[in-house]
Structures are given as C-alpha cells and as structure tokens.
C-alpha cells in the first residue's frame, strides 16, 4: 500500500559498476513460467519479460547476486554480478565499491554506444556486442536511445522470498478466508509476498507499515488506527483492511490488474491511466507516464503474478523444500464495547503480558490500560480459551463484553 517506494524489497541503490570490455549476458529467464490463461489475473505477452524478471529475482537470484538491467525492457539484463563473501543483509565496503565500479563503467559504455549510434560513428567490437544485445531485447533498436538513463540494479531476493513462503504457512488459510468471505479472489492472499515477504515488522521509508504495508491515511479508511490500536500490525485485521480496499478498488475500476496496481499507485492514478488506455494493463504498463507512475507502479502487477506463480508451485522453484510454519491456532473475539486491556484479561482469565504479546496491533498506552481498547477491535486469545471458559461455566459472562467469537479459519 506504499507509494512509491517498497523499501527493503525493491532496489539496491544505484551504486553499481564499471563494465569490463566484454559483457556477461545471462539467460533472459532462468525459470520458465506458466502458460495457462486466467481471466481474473491475465498475463498478456507484452508483460512476460517483466514476469520472468521478477521470477528470477524471487526464485533464482540470491542475495549474493545483483542484476544490472534496463528498467523498461526487463529482458535486457546486462550482467548478474556475484558479490564477494561475506554476504549479509547489507553490503560490505568492498561490495559497494565493486558494484559502483561495475555500474558506472556499464553506464559510461552505454553512453558511448548511444552517442555513436546517434552520430553514426563506428562501434568497436565491445560496443557493437552491447548494441546488438539491446536491439535484440523487447525494446528493439529504439531502446538504444536513453539506455544509460534506464540502467538499474536489483539484488536477488530468493532467500527472503523463501522465508516469506515459510511464514505464509501461518497465515495463508486465514487470509484466504478473509478474501473468500469478502467475495474476492483468494489468490489476493499472495500480495504480502510482494509487499513485505510476510514480515509483520516491515516499515518503509515513506511510512507504510506491517505485512500489508498500509500508509496511515489509507489505513484510517479501511481499518482501526487510533491512539490505542494500529491494525496495520495485526496481519489478519490488516488483511481485512486490504480486502476492503481491493474490493472498493475493483468496484471502481472493474479490473483486477488495475485494482492490484492501485494498491501501489492509488485508485485515482489508475483511473487516469484507464481514461487513456481502458483496462489494457499491458499498454498501461508500457505506455502510461502519469505522475508518480514510476518503476514500482509499473512493476507491481507483474511482481504479483510472479510471486503468485512461485507460491503456487513452491516445490518447483525451491526443490530443496520449504518448511512452512503451522497455521494460526488461536481464539479470536471482537469487542462490542470500549474496555481496558486489563478488563479483557480479567474476563478471559488470561495473563495481561500474554494477551499483550498476542495482540501486536495494541499500542503501549492500550497495553498498559492507560487508554481503553476501542469497540470493534479484534482480540486474539490463547488457543482453547473459550473452550476452557465454557467448561467452567464462565464463558457467558466473558462474552457479555463481546460480539460472537470470530470463527476459526477453514
């Protein structure tokens, strides 16, 4: 839900490096993709290079690899650099220097090719090989113009995506239930792979927070966010907010590709694109140049398609196996009235510290009972709490505070 940056999940800052005389040209797509047509989530031919690119980012290239590529013509991958050890979440000074040298060198070589082609000056063998590579891409001969300005780097995310798959085992059934009950496609449950890799603590530099990466203004429209609670930090409550947002976006736009893209670019922005290109997501991605419709927005839908494909076929993309976490196994209720956390703990006979640890959306003031929890907020309880209270004959008193318990995931 963040615009326009997706923080740690997107770019490596353009640090990168100086080309050697000969460029290494990796395969355009190391893992082939699905071919079946899905009317809800179409993948037109013109978007296939982008889908293949993100498939490689998520399932082929690890964090020890950095691709230098064209940010428009995504099949134009100039090189995939292997970082020197040790490889961690960040970059060592040696790695930064290597990347910058290689990026700067390639950028300069591209400038030379652009200049010589524009003036019809002869190319040396290395420049000719580079020009031929560009011309063979989906951009064709015209892609030579501006190639140096479109150079971008992307670090591989295979390890992060795999970890996201493991965590998704905990939430997949609950998220699918949310979308199913909202009458929306269940596969929207794959969006956190793009937004946060299922990291609930994810926070972007522009203020998006949580597994579903909602910005504050949007969160206030679709979930509870006040002095006591920030439901962006509750994965299921924020999934319900995402379902409300996406349902509203689809109702206004009439297209799932546009509704999904609006999650990054906004409904208003997508309506402007729609006014020119209709529902043709391929033309919008390739030709739309509206305000704020940059790399992140252009790629958001194709990232979703790539993530969805991988998540639906984990054994194919991660043959070494994925250790999925067990599904959520907690009781849930929704408050009918505003009450302090201490009252909830007392009524449900749960230790307040345990209750606080289960309810990630509660802010410190609510956890300490300085301010009450608002009516309508979902409360997570240890598994078996309601059964235990029923056996003791005290569940009726406890439920007096609450609406019906939230059904377990199915």
Summarize the topology.
Elements: H1 48-59, E1 65-70, E2 77-82, H2 93-119, H3 125-135, E3 151-155, H4 158-181, H5 191-195, H6 216-222, H7 235-253, H8 256-265, H9 267-277, H10 281-287, H11 295-312, H12 314-317, E4 331-334, H13 341-348, H14 352-358, H15 364-367, E5 378-381, H16 385-392, H17 395-399
Antiparallel strand pairs: 1-2, 1-3, 4-5
Structural key phrases:
410 residues, mainly alpha, Lysozyme, three-stranded antiparallel β-sheet, 46% helix
Which structural category do the helix and sheet elements fall into? mainly alpha
Order of helix and strand elements from N to C terminus: HEEHHEHHHHHHHHHEHHHEHH
What characterizes the major β-sheet? 3 strands, antiparallel
Unreliable spans: 2-29
CATH class of the largest domain: Mainly Alpha
Give the strand order, joined by hyphens, for the main sheet: 2-1-3
What is the number of helices?
17
Question: What is the CA-atom radius of gyration, in angstroms?
Answer: 24 Å
Mean model confidence by pLDDT: 90
Named CATH architecture of the largest domain = Orthogonal Bundle
* Distance from first to last alpha carbon: 27 Å
What is the tally of beta strands? 5
Proportion of residues in extended strands: 5-15%
Q: How many individual domains?
A: 3
Shape by Cα distribution: elongated
Annotated CATH topology of the largest domain: Lysozyme
Helix content percent band: 40-55%
């Amino acid at each position: 839900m963040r615009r326009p940056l997706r923080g740690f999940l997107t770019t490596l800052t353009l640090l990168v490096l100086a080309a050697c005389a000969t460029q290494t040209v990796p395969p355009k797509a190391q893992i082939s993709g699905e071919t079946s047509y899905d009317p809800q989530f179409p993948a037109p031919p013109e978007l296939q290079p982008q889908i293949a690119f993100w498939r490689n980012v998520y399932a082929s290239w690890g964090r020890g690899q950095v691709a230098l590529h064209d940010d428009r013509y995504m099949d134009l991958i100039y090189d995939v650099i292997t970082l020197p050890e040790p490889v961690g979440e960040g970059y060592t000074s040696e790695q930064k220097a290597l990347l910058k040298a290689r990026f700067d060198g390639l950028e300069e070589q591209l400038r030379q090719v652009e200049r010589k082609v524009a003036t019809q000056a002869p190319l040396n063998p290395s420049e000719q090989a580079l020009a031929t590579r560009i011309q063979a891409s989906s951009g064709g001969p015209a892609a030579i113009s501006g190639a140096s300005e479109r150079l971008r780097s992307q670090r591989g995310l295979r390890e992060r995506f795999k970890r996201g798959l493991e965590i998704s085992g905990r939430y997949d059934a609950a998220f699918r239930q949310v979308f199913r009950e909202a009458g929306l496609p269940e596969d929207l449950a794959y969006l956190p792979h793009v937004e946060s890799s299922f990291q609930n603590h994810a926070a972007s530099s522009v203020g998006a927070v949580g597994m579903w990466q909602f910005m504050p203004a949007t969160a206030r429209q679709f979930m509870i966010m006040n002095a006591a609670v920030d439901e962006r930090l509750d994965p299921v409550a924020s999934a319900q907010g995402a379902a409300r947002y996406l349902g509203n976006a689809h109702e206004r736009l009439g297209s799932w590709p546009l509704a999904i893209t609006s999650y990054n670019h906004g409904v208003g922005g997508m309506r402007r694109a729609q006014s020119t290109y209709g529902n043709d997501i391929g033309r919008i991605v390739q030709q739309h140049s509206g305000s704020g419709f940059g790399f992140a927005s252009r790629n958001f839908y194709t990232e979703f398609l790539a993530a969805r494909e991988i998540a639906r076929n984990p054994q194919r993309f991660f043959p070494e196996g994925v250790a999925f976490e067990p599904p959520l196994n907690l009781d849930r209720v929704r408050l009918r009235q505003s009450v302090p956390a201490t009252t909830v703990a007392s009524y449900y006979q749960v230790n307040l510290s345990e209750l606080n640890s289960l309810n990630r959306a509660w802010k410190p003031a609510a956890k300490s009972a300085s301010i009450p929890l608002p009516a309508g907020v979902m409360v997570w309880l240890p598994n078996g709490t309601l059964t235990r209270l029923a056996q003791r004959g005290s569940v009726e008193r406890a439920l007096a505070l609450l609406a019906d318990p939230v059904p377990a995931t199915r």
